């Protein structure tokens, strides 16, 4: 299916631009930027990406069937990104709950979802995706281990091809999400789970919970085994690290 596409050279954040655009345009709509001056991660962190080397975009997805359409969405988007990575580069990516895509433990892509209310009388989710394609070590400033598909393969990644493949995967997975929900993709997600059965610490606000990461629930909750008891957690403020 065709959809409206905006491409900017430089912009603050494609997620923020998406919020502005949908005050007078009905989703779905896609916004790409070659460079962001205020690229965002979760909880006020920054997303850094050099001009015209990676992929930074936002896909605005209309929520047509109530807010449980959003359950597990960041995990489903992660699946689409990992599939596109495999298809274009052959690299096997893994998924870290809830929103990171890793190769050998290093971050290659991030996902930022923002739910926005309803200027045109419906909810939308702004699905922000950043994928490191051709970024090299000379790019400084990122304060955690990262990689790019160029680093992993030793070649140059065709950005237009990657964008097309990812948009196709994304539309296919969003379609499945809309019709059958995350539960229908849970087993597939678990096959790509980076930290299955690892000992982890989950940051929940000011509290830290230690346990074994035993899987994800039907709404995309993270499931920890804590002192012999299974606990499920869901929400945007949670953060996992290895014990
Ligand atoms: P969490 O598990 O809580 O999501 P996180 O450290 O991955 O932890 P995010 O908010 O998801 O945090 O991502 C933002 C972080 O990603 C930044 O603080 C920075 O460390 C890192 N980062 C920024 N730009 C890039 C990039 N292009 N590639 C990889 N990592 C990046
Ligand atoms: C994360 O790992 O915390 C999420 C990173 C998301 C980055 C993308 S790049 C396109 C979109 N615009 C933003 O400002 N952030 C997302």
Describe the structure.
There is one protein chain. The chain is of the alpha+beta class. It is 24% helix and 34% strand. The protein has five helices and twelve strands. The protein has a seven-stranded mixed sheet, with helices on both faces. The mean pLDDT is 95.
Indicate the structural class.
Answer: alpha+beta
CATH class of the largest domain: Alpha Beta
Tally of domains: 2
Spell out the CATH superfamily of the largest domain: Bira Bifunctional Protein, Domain 2
Molecules bound to protein: adenosine-5'-triphosphate, biotin
Number of helices: 5
Q: How would the global form be characterised?
A: globular
Strand content: 25-35%
Under CATH, the topology of the largest domain is which?
Answer: BirA Bifunctional Protein, domain 2
Mean pLDDT: 95
Major β-sheet profile: 7 strands, mixed
Order of helices and strands: EHEEHEEEEHHHEEEEE
Strands in their spatial order, largest beta sheet: 1-2-3-7-6-5-4
The Cα radius of gyration reads 17 Å
Count the beta strands: 12
Briefly characterize the structure.
The chain is of the alpha+beta class and 243 residues long. 24% of the residues lie in helices and 34% in strands.
Secondary-structure topology with pairs:
Elements: E1 5-11, H1 14-21, E2 29-36, E3 55-63, H2 73-89, E4 94-96, E5 100-103, E6 106-116, E7 123-131, H3 149-153, H4 159-180, H5 186-191, E8 199-204, E9 207-216, E10 222-226, E11 229-233, E12 238-242
Parallel strand pairs: 1-2
Antiparallel strand pairs: 2-3, 3-7, 4-5, 5-6, 6-7, 8-9, 8-12, 9-10, 10-11
Helix pairs in contact: 2-4
The structure holds adenosine-5'-triphosphate and biotin (BTN).
